[in-house]
Amino acid sequence: MSTAALNRIKKKLPERIAQVRGTRSQRQFARDLGVFQQNVNRYENGTTPHTDFLITLANKESVSLDWLLLGKGRMRRR
């Protein structure tokens, strides 16, 4: 995968995190995940999330990591 393609994929991650959050406030979403609201804000604004956050998000929200990281497949795991 080229660097340009990787950068395009990475730019979509904040949008997908916000999509998972839905209509919940960042504060409520952070509480639901057991993380700080400031982290959610940073991740939605483009800071690369820590692996622990991504795994927690995928597990607690039943979200596919392939979808979250790469935009492939369905958002929700069955």
Could you walk me through the main structural features you see in this protein, from its secondary elements to its overall organization?
This protein is mainly α and 78 residues long. The chain has one domain (3-70): 434 Repressor (Amino-terminal Domain), CATH 1.10.260.40. It is built from five helices and no strands. Helix 2 (26-33) packs across helix 3 (37-44). The chain is globular, with a radius of gyration of 12 Å. The termini are far apart. The model has no long low-confidence stretch (mean pLDDT 94).
| CATH evolutionary superfamily | lambda repressor-like DNA-binding domains
Structure annotation, total helices: 5
Helix content: 55-70%
- Contiguous runs where pLDDT drops below 50 for at least 5 residues: none
Main sheet summary: none
Q: How confident overall, as mean pLDDT?
A: 94
Radius of gyration based on Cα positions: 12 Å
Question: How are helices and strands ordered from N to C?
Answer: HHHHH
Coarse structural class: mainly alpha
> What is the CATH level 1 assignment?
Mainly Alpha
According to DSSP, the number of beta strands is 0
Q: Choose one word for the global shape.
A: globular
Looking at the overall shape, the CATH architecture is Orthogonal Bundle
How many separate domains make up the residues? 1
